[in-house]
Amino acid sequence: MKEMLEKIEQSALSEIAAGVSTEEIRIKYLGKKGELTKVLRGMGALSAEERPVVGALANTVRANIEAALKEAVAAEEARKLDEKLKKEKLDVTFPGKEIARGHRHPIYETEQTLRDIFIGLGFSIVEGPEVEYDYYNFEALNIPKDHPARDTQDTFYISDNILLRSQTSPVQVRTMEHMQPPIRIISPGRVYRADPADATHSPIFHQCEGLVIDKGVTMGDLKGVLELFAKRMFGEKTRIRFRPHHFPFTEPSAEVDVSCFACGGKGCRLCKGEGWIEILGAGMVHPFVLSNCGIDPNEYSGFAFGMGIERIAMARLGINDLRLLYENDMRFLEQF
Ligand code: DAH
Question: In which band, very low, low, confident or very high, does the pLDDT at 55 lie, cut at 50, 70 and 90?
Answer without folding.
Answer: confident
